[in-house]
């Protein structure tokens, strides 16, 4: 029994150590943390950092250009609070020359107005992520040169000649969930292939795009769809992969820009709003495409109401919504188990699915200026993927405790039996 407990203790210690290492690795706390405050230099922090470090930049205005030549994460305290201002002087404000770089929650503005100046340049790199940033007032907002597997997600990119430019054999990059507006060209592609561009808003750009004949993907297939283009004038009367089934779905029936020159086969007919939800070091995103204003999005991880948001009508009494819900947050696997309500009145929704998401489309008449929408999956609670080592840890602790109790009770029983036997022998000797 002692040998068994010793073995279990060793195994338990190993799994506790593995669990700790795994959780530390997931949270990034094994890497060093460097904090930069206003008045200090971000570049100095990068120079002193080690690969894998995270550099937290506190709210403030920083007037410098940055060379990122190490695999580090640059995380701003808030997108509106951390401002990197080029003052119209720098040709490259953020020059990324390392793989596995992350840049998040910065406002980066005012690069040089000269031809070819760039706010963010990714050169000959892989796995660079630019997320939740404002990138504005430059010749090129983001320039991706001969780079691959990079991701631009949920950025606001405006007032540039080219909002995003991909060229020189840049491939397999993803532009997803960005708000690209008031640029001369929204996206400019030259000699770049197999890039995926979807769920972006292209609004009030002089030219929404320019592309050569390179093969790129401007939608994520049906039902995920493509992008919202403010100059799209198609109708939405049909649904389905071929848009030939009579029923609206929030996606245009004809490609963008037009039938004989298709670029985006499933353009959204209403602007797209991206809502984020973070859990266990993973960020999920919800999509709401509506002809009305979305207010106060709420996701309840534990309460009965699953999703709730408010809608403010701006385009007449008829409101339409297309909502994307991540499948990983659900316990069920059916398109039929949904309840959609507007101010507690149930309405019927068209529900479609793909590998990673559900899509719900519904329309209703606005009875008042602001309406509350709730979306609840029937008989389901949110699902979160926990680390399997946690379950092993709990199981092993339970096993050790149970065996410990069994061992204690058995020893006590044996000791009691020995005592009884000893007293019996003693009594017999006395007799």
Main attributes of the structure:
alpha/beta; Pectate Lyase C-like; 431 residues; eight-stranded parallel beta sheet; 13-stranded parallel beta sheet
Q: What would you note in describing this structure?
A:
The protein is globular and about 55 Å long. Among the domains are: 32-217, Pectate Lyase C-like; 273-377, no CATH class. It is of the alpha/beta class and 431 residues long. Strands 3, 4, 6, 7, 9, 10, 12, 14, 16, 17, 19, 20 and 21 form a 13-stranded parallel sheet that branches. It has helices at 2-27, 42-48, 388-430; strands at 33-36, 54-57, 60-62, 66-68, 73-76, 82-85, 92-96, 102-104, 107-109, 118-123, 129-131, 134-145, 151-153, 156-167, 174-176, 179-181, 185-190, 196-198, 201-203, 207-211, 228-229, 238-239, 245-246, 256-258, 261-264, 272-279, 282-290, 293-299, 307-312, 318-326, 338-342, 345-347, 350-353, 357-365, 370-377. The longest helix has 43 residues, at 388-430. 18% of the residues lie in helices and 40% in strands. The protein is built from three helices and 35 strands.
